[in-house]
Specification:
- The protein is an all-alpha fold and 196 residues long.
- The chain is rod-shaped and about 100 Å long.
- It folds into two domains: 92 residues, Rna Polymerase Sigma Factor, Chain: A, CATH 1.10.1740; 93 residues, no CATH class.
């Protein structure tokens, strides 16, 4: 008998809640900003009414159910913000964000090895000029003066060495440099110099 009375109360409360379903859904959606999440919140409240009916001494059950929906929607949003905060912190502090995907890491490693091999294969003087200019930011005229050669020679050696490095990193880099495509022209000078 008590079970039947409880089930009857639950059914009545559920029917009343279903009559206000659009209002409950609208309220949850205003808080969550997402129709799907709002539906989940309202359905969770309805399931709570089925499993544990409201007390009979509640004066305005429909207002109470509305409050349940709002509270649950806010709880969901708090939990989502907290979880997203954890995820962002993990990405910033974790090793995965520093290296990207395994495929990107492999491409970067292969490009770096090709670059290193190209630099090591350069004649000693060209490599010295290249390293001083691109790694130590020594101007071409200073390199020429220290080596006792003309600026034109230094410029030519650096241009040739840099073209070889770009070709080693990307086979189509020579064509981009020669054609002066938009992508090459708009990259920052230092990145173009490094072949990145």
């Amino acid at each position: 008998m008590i079970v039947n009375a409880s089930q009857s109360i639950s059914n009545e409360q559920l029917k009343a809640a279903l009559l206000t379903y659009p209002k409950l859904l609208a309220s949850a959606r205003r808080i969550t900003g997402c129709k799907t999440l709002a539906e989940d919140v309202v359905q969770e409240v309805l399931l709570q009414l089925v499993s544990k009916p409201l007390r009979t001494d509640i004066a305005a059950p429909s207002s109470y159910v509305m409050r349940m929906v709002r509270n649950l929607a806010r709880d969901h949003m708090r939990r989502l913000r907290y979880e997203r905060g954890l995820f962002v912190e993990e990405q910033i502090g974790g090793s995965t964000s520093a290296y990207g995907s395994p495929e990107e890491r492999l491409r970067e490693t292969e490009a770096y090895m090709a670059f290193r091999c190209t630099v090591e294969a350069m004649p000693a003087r060209t490599r010295k000029f290249y390293e001083e200019h691109y790694f130590d930011d020594v101007p071409q005229n200073v390199i020429a003066r220290k080596a006792g050669v003309s600026c034109a020679l230094v410029c030519g050696l650096l241009r040739d060495a840099h073209s070889r490095c770009l070709a080693a990193i990307s086979p189509d880099a020579d064509h981009r440099m020669e054609a002066g495509s938009g992508r090459e022209r708009h990259r920052p000078q230092r990145l173009r110099e490094m072949g990145a």
